[in-house]
Give the backbone structure.
Amino acid sequence: MNVKGIHHVSALTANAQENYRFYTEVIGMRLVKKTVNQDDTSVYHLFYGDEKGNPGTELTFFEIPMAAQAHQGVSSISSIGLRVKNDAALEFWKDRFDKLGVKHEGIQTRSGKKYLDFEDPEGQRLSFVSDEKNAGVKAGIPWDRSPVSQEKGATGLGPVRLTVRKPESTVRVLTEILGFKETDRKYPSSVEGQPDVRVFEAGEGGNGAEVHLEERTDLPPERMGRGAVHHVAFRVDDEAELKQWVSRINELQIPNSGFVDRFYFRSLYFREPNGILFELATDGPGFDTDESLDSLGESLALPPFFESKRKEIEAGLKPLDTKTK
């Protein structure tokens, strides 16, 4: 058993309304599910993705009102990649960010591909990565009602960067347990005196299946808060395979969540030795299980096991207008 690539990445926001505005109006992603954190139903869980939230396109946020600003450090998921069709799309985004006042760097080449690094209003670190020279895991299809054209829009998740102090223990989990393979495409650290960043890929490979591993000896542990990433999820086929993973992780005596039913997918959670939370998630059932494709994300969606508490849950949430204009 090997994972197929990145399923989703989940991060933290302190302001769901502003988060929704940025990721739909500025970045042009589709809100495919407005629901609640299943471990704390008093806060929102927002899922952004391509036209239907296909696996490998989902960037999600837990709203934690009043969350302090995250402090960057090791034992962290320190950057989230978003794929775009080609190099020309990066030029479009650079110009768009200039016009809209979004903090960004210049276009750079790393590991043979072009990147545009930027931050959201809460300091979340992201990168657009060009698929022009990419092969491997298939990209998604941007929503045709996005304010950004399908030619320039985000087509899915790209590489995620893990920043750790002791890389070899993380390498063992990636390669010996999850089935990643190290490539020969390492690239220099952005910090002088630090080791090169190593590139690993799963399944078919490519931008949708890459983990970049950064070793940093000059940083304290990350302090979680708004602008930080909570966990990264990797793709497995279905529930039957996930249950095999549960058995395997248990056999390895790795503390874990056991099988978890998230309704839209099934999950297993565990921490790798540097403390980063990994999830394995199934490709289905999907986000159109309880909503039509045309109206995804417009209303508060609750899994059946929370439906009896809808009135109580809705009463505890601040209204969030996500109706498509």
